[in-house]
Amino acid sequence: MINSTTSPYRILVVEDNLGDFTLIEEFIIERVDFPKIEHANSFKEAETLLAKPENIYHIILLDLSLPDKNGENLIHEIIALSRHTPVVVLTGFSDFEFGVKSLSMGVSDYLLKEDLNANGLYKSLIYSAERQKISNKLKESEKQVRSFANQLNNALEEERAHIAREIHDEFGQQLAGLKMSLSALRKLKNSPEAQEEFINSLVEEVNNSIEMVRRIANELRPVLIDKLGLPIALEWLVKEFAKKTGMSSEVNVVDTPLVLDKIVEINIFRICQEALTNIAKHAQATEIKLDIACIENTWHFKVSDNGIGIPNSLNNSISMGLLNMKERSYLIGATLIITNNLPSGTIIEITVNPND
């Protein structure tokens, strides 16, 4: 039985036949504790009730033959006004094809009045409400997926633009400089000492170009992960971050071999990278700390800072940075916990068991 003692179970019955309404009301009262039943004799009355923002119903029971509207047109109008409230059609006509069609129009259930009883109506109320909850969750999930896909595409485009700028502005300029230097070198063929000095400067420019290519490649795919493992790659990440931001840093790594799948490693690296990016953008921190430990085959990665914590505007499911971390954690079967450690900063914890 539906218990509505704390929050009344509100039902709108749209029915012009007083006898049918009385019977429906009795069936509802038989199975629902203290329901709040409201009655509309016509579509116009139902429209007036549904238009009021304060009128939020758990279910709408709709007769298909009203004096001012009926059939498909009535269903379309009520669905449009329902604000995602489940609509159960009650009818005296046993038209199977129309019943199936009404379900495709958004109706939650289709009940024949001649077969109606308390148990059948109660089941329809429960099933319709649960289906609506599931449907709402699916719609919200789809909305989040679309939002994430859109933001991810934007992030990829921004990253491509960033790499293109670095290649064009820095690497391109270095290559142009090398070209001019080589042209100038031709003019120094009669001065061995000047040639030697020029060649040394060319070697330095080439070394700078090589270093830049390595840096760009490392941003795309950290080589340290493949060569030296995740802990050293994360230690390098934190130190580079501290160098760029001027923050002080501390890294504590358990001296234990780390055995993780490469996909897991790269995702953990990216989560930590995203955490550091959020710290730089929003935390107003002066100190960062990374702790890596293994307890009973479960690896723990903790990034913490001494900043102001996560702003409320970011602490939601569609914030790009947080959503990105959550999605990566989900993909590798890791647990992600983000805690505002007020009044001093944020703690981001990732736990993963290679054997799970």
- The CATH superfamily label of the largest domain reads Histidine kinase-like ATPase, C-terminal domain
CATH class designation of the largest domain:
Alpha Beta
**Radius of gyration over all CA atoms, rounded:** 33 Å
CATH architecture of the largest domain: 2-Layer Sandwich
Query: How many E-type strands?
Result: 12
Widest sheet, order of strands: 2-1-3-6-7
Count of individual domains: 3
Helical segment count? 10
Helix content: 55-70%
Strand content: 15-25%
Largest sheet: 5 strands, parallel
H/E topology pattern: EHEHEEEHEHEHHHHEHEEHEE
Which fold name corresponds to the CATH topology of the largest domain?
Heat Shock Protein 90
Shape: elongated
Helix-strand makeup class? alpha/beta
Keywords: ATP-binding, Coiled coil, Kinase, Nucleotide-binding, Phosphoprotein, Transferase, Two-component regulatory system
Modified residues (4-aspartylphosphate): 63
Catalytic activity: ATP + protein L-histidine = ADP + protein N-phospho-L-histidine
Pfam families: HATPase_c (PF02518), HisKA_3 (PF07730), Response_reg (PF00072)
Protein model, in words:
- The structure is a single chain.
- With about 350 residues, the chain is an alpha/beta fold.
- The protein folds into three domains: about 10-115, Rossmann fold, CATH 3.40.50; about 145-220; about 225-350, Histidine kinase-like ATPase, C-terminal domain (Heat Shock Protein 90).
- Helices cover about 55% and strands about 20% of the residues.
- The chain has helices at about 20-30, 45-50, 70-80, 95-105, 120-185, 190-220, 225-230, 230-245, 260-285, 320-330, and strands at about 10-15, 35-40, 60-65, 65, 70, 85-90, 110, 250-255, 285-295, 300-305, 335-340, 345-350.
- The protein has a five-stranded parallel beta sheet with strand order 2-1-3-6-7, with helices on both faces. The protein has a five-stranded mixed beta sheet with strand order 8-9-10-12-11, with helices on one face.
- Helix 5 (about 120-185) packs antiparallel against helix 6 (about 190-220) and helix 8 packs parallel to helix 9.
- The protein is elongated, with a radius of gyration of 33 Å.
- Residues about 315-320 have low confidence and may be disordered.
- Its EC number is 2.7.13.3.
